[in-house]
Amino acid sequence: MSAGWFRRRFLPGGPLPTPRPAGPHASPVPYRRPRFLRGSGSSPGPADASRRPDARPVRSPSRGRTLPWNAGYAEIINAEKSEFNEDQAACGKLRIRRCEFGTEEEQEWLTVCSEEFLTGHYWALFDGHGGPAAAILAANTLHSCLRRQLEAVVEGVVASQPPMHLSGRCVCLSDPQFVEEKGIRTEDLVIGALENAFQECDEVIGRELEASGQMGGCTALVAVSLQGKLYVANAGDSRAILVRRDEIRPLSSEFTPETERQRIQQLAFIYPELLAGEFTRLEFPRRLKGDDLGQKVLFRDHHMSGWSYKRVEKSDLKYPLIHGQGRQARLLGTLAVSRGLGDHQLRVLDTNIQLKPFLLSVPQVTVLDVDQLALQEEDVVVMATDGLWDVLSNEQVAWLVRSFLPANQQDPHSTSAGWSSQVLGIGPNADTQHTGEGRFHGGRTGVLR
Amino acid sequence: MSAGWFRRRFLPGGPLPTPRPAGPHASPVPYRRPRFLRGSGSSPGPADASRRPDARPVRSPSRGRTLPWNAGYAEIINAEKSEFNEDQAACGKLRIRRCEFGTEEEQEWLTVCSEEFLTGHYWALFDGHGGPAAAILAANTLHSCLRRQLEAVVEGVVASQPPMHLSGRCVCLSDPQFVEEKGIRTEDLVIGALENAFQECDEVIGRELEASGQMGGCTALVAVSLQGKLYVANAGDSRAILVRRDEIRPLSSEFTPETERQRIQQLAFIYPELLAGEFTRLEFPRRLKGDDLGQKVLFRDHHMSGWSYKRVEKSDLKYPLIHGQGRQARLLGTLAVSRGLGDHQLRVLDTNIQLKPFLLSVPQVTVLDVDQLALQEEDVVVMATDGLWDVLSNEQVAWLVRSFLPANQQDPHSTSAGWSSQVLGIGPNADTQHTGEGRFHGGRTGVLR
Fold first, then answer.
1. Phi then psi dihedrals of residue A205, to 5 deg
2. What value of ipTM does the predicted structure carry?
3. pTM for the whole thing?
């Protein structure tokens, strides 16, 4: 992005983004469920027979359909919140062309495998909000963005060390030494490709939603297996964990207004006009009211991880930039997440205040060295949106996985005998046994193995 | 700070800070060594007798003078770099008045202890650059700022849980619950006081240096013991570790252009005019040159923790915002640290580009629960500037401490028989035995126990 882009895009007086002319893009993004659910209809999963009357239907891939690494998948629709499921998922093989970039841009996502391709796998969960359109576009687009980004650097990815110049031409004899000193490894190129793919996908979603006059955003949790490593990229409040016999390893961190408070307050400090005089960037334990005026109350500002006291002035009575805690925490009173895709048009109700400058589409990427981990048959990666993690802890999910797997080893639909042939979907019954609420709360669970 | 402060202070067209009228403040900050070194003259430390001809003199407190918790201290002057030691240190008792704030502002630092005071201890190292003035001002001032900040919140610090209102008046019956839900503990008030004290001290240094026409900055590493906890606040590239029999626990993180690359690049992305067209915010493995034009080279931008390739344009040939790696990494080609106090007037050579907007005076604070740790006689906290850590690893320092302590238990100057009567200074001989360079490189070592 060019210098000054941020200001031109978000500050008053800057030109608004040019609307795309109406055309094929002007039609709304059609609603659909993940492709791998085709054929499973709306029939509930195998756990349905014993579900309680108040439990909602669970969908999972039909029997006989295997996902990469025979991953399992289950989703439910939160009928209380929306008629349609705002969430999406995607998975498939990644085939990265090892040749000059840009020669066959029309190539389809799935192609015949050959020696010229670097292959991997891709799984993704998108937790939508404000409508299903952004999550659908993300499920349709992000893997293509990632493939393009990987193809642009693939010669570096397959090298033992990424060369300073992609052409391999050595401008300076010390170039390999400079790269070595920076500690740049091939996995850094995959991390960079994931980061750039999220940005590219976010821009595509912004353009498409603007053209079709739709709204919405989504979180994105992506796992990619490539060259013996598993990359987990997360933007939002979904979570991935690795469950092993004696270990639960977090593979992601959550990005919410609470976890990113200082970054968000810092932006409001540097650009106060982003709040249009309607919000205070300061955090207080609760929203202040007239009775607090003149009193010294607990607060913290952008530079503080600790707390202090300040004497309350009238401007402190404004609505806080970040307010509430836990599941109730909101950015500008509107959003529960601070990273994700979409939301380009989202504004605070009845104002012109934009959410987007405070949102990042950048994921945090963690890398698991699968080849070196000596994974066992019972090791499982669990990826799920906040609906699961709001009601079950990492330990409870791990307990469920460890309990479920050994008991289902004879069912080819839900278990396997080897590394790459395991399927598991955690149904709502497991949930109802272990939470007071008895629901996933719209959560979806994907388990890879 | 008021809304818009950042822009008014740092962007072209904003008013310059009003110079203070000449007066008592217009005289330069007088050079001195830490007060606790008085009486020790310039005589080398006890390790001097065996030092090599090329080793520089070591200063430590004179025999008979004890520091809080009988800490040890050693410093050397890097005669190759400067005639005077740019570094400073301070330590003393903290006495926090438990009464209304602002009634006796003229009160001296050291006062008679009484029941009305909350007492603690304070140790600090300041690694100066660009002249000794900032470090001297920090050594003279920071403890007073901290005392003021703590006195402003002391009623909350001594409570079992900080009240929403400092007055204790309950405006809303649920206030204790709001504070509880935010998880605000008394230690958060001490953390907040340290964060605010660093900011306040930075402002004082800015005013004083401007008035006296001096330059300079310093890192700050501070340890404070209060109510059974040890707080370590760090802004810069110094480091503190806790050495125990079976454990080495880091008590701080370093803040350098490398460790804070994304924050610094992000600011340049949001405010490109801070670079005045002279620098590129992109990072490359080395500085690019004409031969690289048109080639695809490794780079990363503010949103990336990974790397990618970009085709080199002319603007990429500018000097990078952050350049070099390890000890050679520099911010704007000028500074090796990204946090610290002072440097308000520092500009890139022969330009009007300011360093300050990229520098933070905010420390990161870690808390050690001394009461719960069950510390043993041989447990030691080592605080040192980068001069030590550039040549010795945490493990090497721990090995030295573990070797030195048992062998010196009969020397009251360097060891003790109990918790609060231990003195230890690591001299250069220990260093020469374990590094190829045989020097501290201007490093100073403070060991608290």
1. -60, -45
2. 0.85
3. 0.85
